Amino acid sequence: MYSYTEFDDQFLAERNAQFRAQVERRIDGSLTEDEFKPLRLMNGLYLQLHAYMLRVAIPYGTLNSAQMDQLAYIAERWDKGYGHFTTRQNIQYNWPELRDVPDMLDALAEVKLHAIQTSGNTIRNVTADHFAGAAADEVADPRPVAELIRQWSTDHPEFQFLPRKFKVAVTGAEADRAVIKSHDIGLRIVERDGQQGFEVIVGGGLGRTPMIGKVLYDFVTAEDLLPTLEAIVSVYNVLGRRDNKYKARLKITVHENGIEDIRARVDAQYALIRSQFSGVDQQMLARIEADFAAPQFKTAPLAAYESAYTNDPVFRAWADTNLADHRAPGYAIVSISLKAHGATPGDATADQMRVMADLARRYGHDELRISHEQNVILPHVHRSDLPELHAALKAAKLATANIGLISDIIACPGMDYCALATARSIPIAQEIATRFDELKLEHDVGPLKIKISGCINACGHHHVGHIGILGLDRAGVENYQITLGGDGTEDATLGTRTGPGFSADAIIPAIERLVLGYLDLRNDPTETFLQTYRRLGLAPFKAVLYPEAQANAA
């Protein structure tokens, strides 16, 4: 992973000292809340429904064990003993006292972490495929270029006051595990004639007006990547709307002007600025790439793994759902579910964080990743170590075998925490997971992604859920709309709204009818929910979702 330089350390120290002085001025009344707000947002500090919330960046989702241990310490020392991992590969602390935030930032800096640009109308935390550097289908590890983009965008003098927040995601594989088509800029490493470059996608985003990104360039060389990104953001900075925050995102700029017009403007801007990029960025990239060298993979007999897989059905169920193919022989990628049935999706206690840090040290070459699906990944584990690792996860209540299944739900904090939310998300996710655990149908149902948002801002990615749930306020009553057929992969698709929403009491039975209906509609157990929906369309699912409407129509 990236090693901070003396400059990096000094930059963080000065930035934190500056914010400490600003906090002191807020506490003594020298700054009003209105004056303090833009300053705190530049440092990732929000004022939520009940308390302040500090959002900490985990750049491209990569952590080592010392960093995870420090996140645990911060949760215990200054919060309520847990943290919440988000869909943007961040961690949020929901209960800090304002006077403690500077100490929290200093503690983060000790392990090369920060909260810079996790808020505000600027380029946010750059995210990446959570299997980066390990996936068997990877063209190249996307994290070095993600780190280059992070350095380029941090405190960039032109891009601190954009029309709206701006999000970038990078993947190095054909399979899109980073949801790049729902970002302002999505990058995919591709090969052409033996040369590596980037497919550049722009104008994606969810929220109030969801849109799938469009290909701006199908191939940009590594040397041309940063000037191309600078040209894109510069064009957006000038052209993006500032008269209406609901129409300020790049997706609206692309929609209103058309992709051809945007491409022409970017081409023109690129021609103006290209000479300013002398190749220093490529020298920096070479240094960064050295920091991301693969670990020294080991070889060992697989007898212990094979015996456990054959003789232990609990281990086998976990292995079948929570392991993914690794590029190195004998290794696996381990996904640790933060979605135990009835738990809050994405939450981890300080003790659980320490367990995961220790497992990374013992078995995982000291690497962890945070996924946009709010789980934790050990990207490099030899299969011979998996039985011992699984036993340790079970003891920590971290061995839920549900990755990609119905209880592996993405959910935003909703009205339990967020001042913008119009409905609760967490209880709905908990009730769905608990209900299908009671029915013992989860593994029979197979791959199914449910995503829940507590408001139109779509932090729970409901638009790209196979089943998406959007919580809204209808005359003071929580109402939950359902969308079907969304997909956040390389085949990205926005879900289709099914019809009238459901009350909080009715939404769980509605989801149950929907899933049981799918089991009757599928051709065979190998046909997934999404495949069945794409084969049959909305009508048969709508019929099982609204049986009274069907009866009345008859």
From TrEMBL:
Nitrite/Sulfite reductase ferredoxin-like domain residues: 52-111, 345-396
Keywords for the protein's UniProt record, in alphabetical order: 4Fe-4S, Heme, Iron, Iron-sulfur, Metal-binding, Oxidoreductase
Segments forming domain Nitrite/sulphite reductase 4Fe-4S: 119-268, 408-545
Record bears the keyword Heme: yes
TM spans (from-to): none
Metal-binding as UniProt keyword: yes
Molecular function GO terms recorded: 4 iron, 4 sulfur cluster binding; heme binding; metal ion binding; oxidoreductase activity
Name of this protein: Sulfite reductase (NADPH) hemoprotein beta-component
Organism name: Sulfitobacter delicatus
